[in-house]
Amino acid sequence: MNAxxxxxxxxxxxxxxxxxxxxxxxxxxxxxxxxxxxxxxxIPAKGWxxxxxxxxxxxxxxxxxAGDCVFAGGDHETMLWTLEGGKPAVFxxxxxxxxxxxxxxxxxxNPASDQGTDVRTALAYxxxxxxxxSTGNRHKVAAYLALEPGNTDHLYEALxxxxxxxxxxxxxxxxxxxxxxxxxxxxxxxxxxxxxHYIPLVARRTNLExxxxxxxxxxxSGFYKKYCDEAWAILSPEVFKNGTDLEGFNFAQLQADLNAxxxx
Length: 264
Description:
globular; alpha+beta; seven-stranded antiparallel beta sheet; 9 strands; 8 helices; Cathepsin B, Chain A; two-stranded antiparallel sheet; 31% helix
C-alpha cells in the first residue's frame, strides 16, 4: 500500500431497518438506463482534490493524510450534486477532516485516533447534520437506500437515477499498483485485501468510474462484484434544478416514494 494514500472504511454492517433499493425498484417503474451515462465531466480533472485522504496542505502545512475516505467521498458526491443543481459548493481537506473528527473523534495530533468510519454512521450524520463546506454551510442528504452488493443491474439503475452510488470495497493490493499505473481496477489473482475503502461511483463509461484520491478511477464490473461489500444509493435534494435533475426525474415523486417505503 502506498503510504501517501489512505484507506479508512470500517467493515460493512447491516441493519434490517435499512431502506432497500430493491424494494423501491419494485414499487415504482424506473426509467431505462443508457449504455453510457454520468456527469463526472462537469468537474475538471484537477478539481476533485484529495480532501484529506492523502497529502493535503489545505488541512495544515505538511499534512500527510488520514483515513477519512468516507467523508472525502461524501464531499466529492456533494460537489457533483451541487454543481448539477446550479449552486456549486466548495470543499477543502479541512472540511472533510472536520466532519471525520466530529463523527469518529479523530485528532490529527494523535495518529492512533485515525481508525476509519462506519459508512452507515456517516450516512446518518449526513442526513441529520450534513457535511460542512468551505463557507460553513451544511449539506444534508434526503435519504439513502442499500443496494445488494455485486448486483450490477441494480447498481446501473441506481447510478443513473441518483447520479452517484457510494460504495465500500475491500481494497486489494493489486488496486494500488493499477491506480499508480493509470489502469482500471480489475481482478488480479492472488491479490491480498489491505483494508476497507469508500468511493463514489459517478459514471458508467467503458468501465465504471469512481472518484478517489482526487481523481477519476476506472473499475471493471468484475472488480465491483468481487470486492464491493456495501453500496448505497444516496438521494440529495441539491441535485435538482427547478424540481428535476439532469435526467428529468421529479424530486417530489421520488421523495414521496421513499417516504412511503420508510413508513413516514
